[in-house]
Each structure stands twice: as C-alpha cells, then as structure tokens.
Amino acid sequence: MTHVTSIGLDVHARSVSACAFDPFTGEVVQRSFGTDAGEIAAWIKGCEEPKAVYESGPTGFALCRQLRALGVDCAVGAVSRMQKPAAEKRRKNDRRDAAFLARLLATRNVVEVWVPPAEAEAARDLSRALDDAREDLQRARQRLSKFLLRRGHVFDETDALGRRRGAWTRAFWRWAEGLRPDEPAAASAFDHYATCVRCAESDKRALEKLVLAEARSERWAGVVGALSCIKGVDAVTAFCLATEAGCFSRFATAGAYASWLGLTPSEHSSGEKEATGGITKTGNSASRRALVEAAWHYASCSPKPKAAPAGYDVPPRIRGRAADATRRLRARHEALRAAGKRPCVANVAVARELACWVWEIGRSAEGTLG
Asked: Phi/psi zone of residue 152: left (φ > 0), alpha (ψ -120 to 50 degrees), beta?
C-alpha cells in the first residue's frame, strides 16, 4: 500500500516514541506516548495517508495487531536488516531511533517481518515451551549427575549381555536413591536436584501431550501429517517446523526458506577473492536445530519409505514425494561421506537439502505449490 506520511515508532515495554515524517514537505513531528494503542492510532490517523513501522524485538506483534485492528497500516521491520550509520551509534536515544525508522520507511528501505495470525503464534509458543522444557530437563539432569560425580559416583551398570545401561531409567533411579548422602546439607541438595529432574520430566511429558493434541487440530493436521512422512521427522518436529514457518507459501522458493533458517553458506568475497564459509546461522534457530537433528537419521537409515503416520490422512502423492526425499537424502549423505567430508559438515549439507524438501512437501500439503 502506498503512503505519504512515514511514521517511526520506537516501542518499549512502558513507552512509545513516535516520529511522523512527510518527505514531500520535509515536516517532522515527534510525540511520546504510553502503551495505549488507541491514543497512538488516533494521532497517526491525523496524518496524511500514514504508515507506521517499528523494529522487531521482545515487544512482539501485539502493538502491530492492535493498530491494524484500529485501521492503521502498521508493519514490523526486520531489525537485522537495518544498517545504521556509524556516526549514529554514539548518539542513540528514543527520539532519534523513531526518526531513523521514519526515514527508512520513507525511502522504502524497511524489510517487513511477516506478522503471524494469533492462532499461529499461539501454536508456536506451545512448541517453543516444549523446547524450553527439554532444555530445563537437560540442565536438571546435568546438575544431578555432576553432583553425584563430585562425590565419586558414576552410573556404570550393565545388562545380561554386558551392555551399559542407559541413564535416567528405573535402574538409574534405584542406584541414585541408594547414594543419598548422610550429611543433612548434602542430602537436602540431593533431594532438590532429584526433585528438579522429576518435575522437569513430568513437565516435558505434559507438554508433549499438548503438542500432539494441537498437531491433530484442523489448522495443523494436514501439514504435520505430510511432514511426518519424511524420515527423521516425527509429529513433534513436524509441528515445530509448521508453526515456526506459519505457512510455507510465504517463501517464494526453497532457497528462500533455507536462507530464512540460516542454513545457507556464509560468504566474504571482494574483488577477485571469493571465499565461502560455514552456514550463516542467522535465521530461525528452532527450525534449524530440528532439521540438523533430523538429518542425522540419514547417516544410518535405510532408503526404504517411511510408513504413513498413524491418525493422519496423507495423500499418496505427498507420501511418494516423502519417499523420494528419503532416497535422495540417504544417497546424498553417503556421497558426502565418500568424498571425505567430516560428519558434521555432511550432516549440515543434508539438513540444508532436507529444508528444501520440507518446503516443497509443506506447500503441497497447504495446496499452494504450483
């Protein structure tokens, strides 16, 4: 949508600094507000054909949605794409930041962030909560195991075949509870660490059930079922990929999706020098981590197709493409290893190609693939 007045908003938790800039007259008007969207919208509507923008960040999309609901054209700009002059770095304040955003918008130099629908953001928050629960569980287990290690105890039981038993099983807990210290202070510390692990395990299981239930909802079932046909991608991983993307059709190409994930090679070339490096890692970290973990399956899995996920109605055409992805990615991993690539390098390369398959299958499930 075309606009005349460019409005920059420097949004904070308790205040908003605004700057309206008319490039045709050169007029600049600055105001300060609280967080009342109605007051901000009323001021913006007093300008000639306005459009507002604020930086992406911890304040999220709430203000953008509120302003749009009040009839204001508002966008969220990608802060990672905004290049401020070096001279401005030592003269930073809210008024200057708002004016800088207004000038960027006036010159059409703002890369707009996709604002997800409220239901998509809610599902994404649930997926991220599960990721947080996994990290909390890992930290809690680390603290308990290292507490026991400091006291000279390491779980080293073996089964009847001489294989070492895994930790955090019933056998581990029987072993750990038998090592509860006699000293009252140390015993209290042990009880705290053990309780944290059990609570974290319980929280993770509860969130997994909620995620699986949400994945079967009408909004997500089609895409989650389709992505779950790919080897290495279960329903939880598919839900993560689907909710983080919101909708795969917003990426014009598979390469654009891979770039959004940060799975494209970095580059530092100048003149006759051309140099590329590791992946940029400047993108959606949750999806990138899920794809890199999924790619490890292709180091040892068979090229046979994966069985269709139970409870999901996946069209045969999509199952066929998922089978093609399995064969292709397995062969790709073998070829990279045969070429002498280090395992981690080969795995990331496979993850990048896996992202392209996810994009294609995701768009097919959405019915937006031409």
From this structure: left
The helix/strand/coil state of 291 is: helix
For position 1, what pLDDT does the model report? 58
* Token pair 């770039």 in the structure block, residue: 259
Extended strands (E) in the chain: 5-11, 16-21, 28-33, 50-55, 74-77, 265-267, 276-279
Q: Hey, how many other C-beta atoms are within 10 angstroms of the C-beta on 75? A: 18
User: What are the respective helix, strand and coil percentages of the chain, to the nearest 5?
Assistant: 55, 10, 35
At which residue do the structure tokens 């020098």 appear?
273
Please provide the DSSP assignment of 103-118 as one string: HHHHTT---BPP---H
| Structure confidence by residue, pLDDT tens digits, 313-370 | 999 999 999 999 999 999 999 999 999 999 999 999 999 999 999 999 999 999 988 6
Give the C-alpha distances (Å, rounded to integers) separating 243 from 179, 307, 311: 43, 23, 19
**Phi/psi of residue 17, nearest 5 degrees:** -100, 130
From its phi and psi, is residue 246 left (phi > 0), alpha (psi between -120 and 50) or beta? Answer: left
Q: Which helix (H) or strand (E) holds 193?
A: helix 184-215
Contacts 24+ apart (CB under 8 A), 203-210: 203/133, 203/136, 203/137, 204/130, 204/133, 204/134, 204/136, 204/137, 207/126, 207/129, 207/130, 207/133, 208/130, 208/236, 210/126
d(CA 113, CA 186): 51
- Cβ atoms of 32 and 16 within 8 Å: the answer is yes
> β-strands 50-55, 5-11: how paired?
parallel
Q: What is the pLDDT of residues 333-344, one digit of tens each?
A: 999 999 999 999
Listing DSSP states for 316-367 in one string gives HHHHHHHHHHHHHHHHHHHHHHHTT--HHHHHHHHHHHHHHHHHHHHHHHHT
Q: Across-strand partners of 6?
A: 21, 51
Model's pTM, two decimal places? 0.92
Locate tokens 């953008």: which residue?
64
